[in-house]
Amino acid sequence: KRQGRDQFCVYTDAMTHEAHDLIYKSAGIRRALENDEFELLFQPQFDIVAPTIIGAEALIRWNHPELGQLSPDAFLDVAEQTGLILDIDDWVFKQVAALVSEWKSQGFNLDGISFSVNFSGRKFFEPGLGKQLDDVIAMYDCSATQLVLEITERDMMSRFDLSAATIKDLRKRGYRVSIDDFGTGYSSLASLKNLPADTIKLDRSFILDIVTSDRDLAIVKSVMTLAEELGLSVVAEGVETQDQVDSLISIDCQYAQGYHFAYPLREDQWMLLLSAYNNA
Ligand code: C2E
Ligand code: CA
Ligand code: CA
Ligand code: CA
């Protein structure tokens, strides 16, 4: 009995600590939203055949007043647990629409350039999402056709029928939808047939050994073949070397993103790169 009580104490202590941590961190995120401490970086996406820049993925960072710049790993978990992820996803979407609008007003040509936004499952499955997004972009000089909404394969598979319905609605409104981290969500390739998305982003883990592993190359190649038949385009994620680029080109994978081409960039650097690269 005595031992039982001790164990109970340890247990409650741990719970209290965890709860405190959660409350503390979520208060930080609320403050960050109020004080404009979040920032978006933009990682360029390339057509490696052309070659040209076709767009960028917005990636969030937290410029924490004491801890410096934090990556999503450091705060998205807590945001998910507390539901604050909805506020973050709203902020990101609005910020992208506002920046696109701002860049156009500065005279930048964004024809043919698309902007990818990461959505949590929670956001993606919110009722009335399409209308909500339309209301946001209506306030800016930004059209749905310039935006790509990324949702992970894992989240998508968790609610398959709702995913398919949401994708249909979003596409009807002009948005494009991309299946992120593809290959890690344990969906069968056949299930793609019933998911009317536009793009799949092939997870970095498949690209990692593509040069040395014939098996990995064969996997990517079969995804490419199937995607082509279903009218989906494929973006290879996490491309870090020229050899990987060569392998991708050898199997007709046209689109890629990764440190080999560019790191996630601050907005001014991204726009400089875009103008320099696509006008050269
Ligand atoms: P993700 O959507 O798969 O984004 C790609 C991640 O890989 C990014 O990490 C990017 O910086 C990193 N990356 C890009 N190229 C390379 C490469 O060549 N090699 C390696 N090793 N890594 C590369 P980041 O920015 O830390 O984001 C991590 C994850 O956090 C994202 O994974 C996404 O799931 C989530 N995330 C980021 N921004 C947002 C956001 O605005 N909203 C939501 N809901 N989630 C976000
Ligand atoms: Ca800014
Ligand atoms: Ca993504
Ligand atoms: Ca990804």
Automatic annotation (TrEMBL):
Residues 22-278 form the EAL domain. This is EAL domain-containing protein. The lineage of its organism: Bacteria, Pseudomonadati, Pseudomonadota, Gammaproteobacteria, Oceanospirillales. The chain holds residues 541 to 820 of 825 of the full protein.
